[in-house]
């Protein structure tokens, strides 16, 4: 019997984990699999406990779906290491690891929609600044650059740039300062994070500070990623890629 185990990052805040769990449990109506569980990389239940729950319900084949945006350290290193440990306990269970949402068409469409929802109608020059976490793994920045290029095609006449909060370059603050000092009159700052995350709030605080320093520019903070229909379908499709 097959199972899908959704893997989220996890938080020290149990209410945050509860919100994430509730959102992922809603996927059960979209994913055609009898056994569906939620586990966390850095909270309880952890991945090994999640696998144990699936096995207890009769699973002999498990699809691990990382609910992550980019292939950073968690997707490339941490999750596979925990899966390897669990595989030693359950050698007869087949375990597949899915791909993060990356540059899926649904995520690109969702990002464009969020920008258009707050788009200012003007003839002035406009730009979009995407903000991701940053990673020491080049796969993450390469995927984010691909995402930026695909979003540029979707937005057409609005220039799209990428930036990072940590580790990778260019840094968010440096890139935002660079853009406000050019001839862009409107800049849309787009958090590339799920809404169930503390980083969007920190990004918004930075935007507020820049709005006060550079009040001749319109700096618009776009909403983070929510678990709407686009995102649910993107996750569903990632599961199908392995299940087919």
TrEMBL record:
<dbReference type="GO" id="GO:0016829">
    <property type="term" value="F:lyase activity"/>
</dbReference>
<keyword id="KW-0479">Metal-binding</keyword>
<dbReference type="InterPro" id="IPR002762">
    <property type="entry name" value="CbiX-like"/>
</dbReference>
<dbReference type="Pfam" id="PF01903">
    <property type="entry name" value="CbiX"/>
</dbReference>
<keyword id="KW-0456">Lyase</keyword>
<dbReference type="InterPro" id="IPR050963">
    <property type="entry name" value="Sirohydro_Cobaltochel/CbiX"/>
</dbReference>
<dbReference type="GO" id="GO:0046872">
    <property type="term" value="F:metal ion binding"/>
</dbReference>
<protein>
    <submittedName>
        <fullName>Cobalamin biosynthesis protein CbiX</fullName>
    </submittedName>
</protein>
